[in-house]
């Protein structure tokens, strides 16, 4: 626990718990204790990176005992031998790891890694050798670690990639989850490579928690899968592991990027308010260096008491902590988890805004964070809170990335005319589009130089690149992008204001050029 003058930071990681063991149909699992992914507290970080990013439990293969009746002794011997072979084959798999990734529409289970007792011959593996309950297998290869890779190599692990379009892939669910899909959207872990993704999540335009009316609190399921080796597997030694009918249940979870965040709690001494938050610290943090920090604030539809929700709802928080992004822009990432409008501050709530400001100050005091390179971004209600912070504390942020939001009282936004802003909305969003247009007109009247453009909302990250390059070349302090109506809503959704709204941030946070622009800004 670290106390600061502005408030108190409490480490939730110190509160350890016991995992609830999964119920496996055909394989017993023996837990050795940690928080499961669905719990909102996280275990303390381990020295070993794999342990830090996995939820550990033990697993043993089931032993099959044959039941024989009315058979000759020869038949009995044959069946006994077959059963022994079956049990032995099942025993070659020593553990299973579920691998998750966060997409624009939420976290999904996208792969399973099985560990064998010997190295597996990558050249002799076939996708048809494995089945995963209720899932579509898209690729199978061997690896030296339980991780996805571009190419297979001989190793003890067999990685089974799964389609993120499967209904059973979804771990994050909210009121807007449905049957939409987009083949153009990447996950945060893959960053620039288009990967199929699915259903929407978020809140309608209009701001804070509950703005859409009647929205249920989002949920996060524990990642788990059952895998059956239905074909033979060959080791590098030439041994053949025969097909088995026993399914293996995963016992570990590797939540890519999400597990790299700490879950903490801040209490502000001035307001007496507490705020849960997620913090990403650069992997090779050096207190002798100075780092920027990005503040991400979620939309009202993801208000929750579970701090992992803001990390798993979409790309807004995790994209900044991805390996590819950190390689270019090593930074801290701060992602508060608001429980409702009272602590979010999207209504201009002064105590809530002061608490958020106090949290930022406390972290800047605790770590080597450059106060001249603080950035804010948010979607919907998170953008509204960013705007409120911008005019309440005009010297706080070096730049703001505003997505799918607005502010009703235009007289209050005039201080933003002297700030660096990049805003993205959708023309089909009946509140955020006219609302942000009004803000831009107000800032322009106050002397701000603004570049405006209309872009196709379903471009890939690579296709967005020339558009952002042209806008950045104009070197204006304020940039305003409207995504063209009819190009934003994903397949399976309706062309209406709400779906335009929730699909805006699925596109916005994939645009690498805007992220690069943000880090170029520095407060004087």
TrEMBL record:
Which residue stretches does the UniProt record annotate as biased composition, category Gly residues?
204-215
- What name does this protein carry? Peptidase
Compositional bias per record (Low complexity), positions renumbered to this chain: 177-203
Q: Where is this region: Disordered?
A: 1-49, 175-218
The biased composition feature labelled Polar residues covers 13-25
Domain annotation Esterase Ig-like N-terminal: ranges: 97-242
- Lipid metabolism keyword on record: no
Going by the entry's taxonomy, the superkingdom of the source organism is recorded as: Bacteria
List all Basic and acidic residues biased stretches: 38-49
This protein's UniProt keywords: Signal
Show the InterPro entries listed in the entry.
AB_hydrolase_fold, EstA_Ig-like_N, Plant_Biomass_Hydrol_Est
Query: Membrane: is it a keyword of this entry?
Result: no
Q: Which Pfam families match?
A: EstA_Ig_like
Q: Which organism is it from?
A: Streptomyces griseoviridis
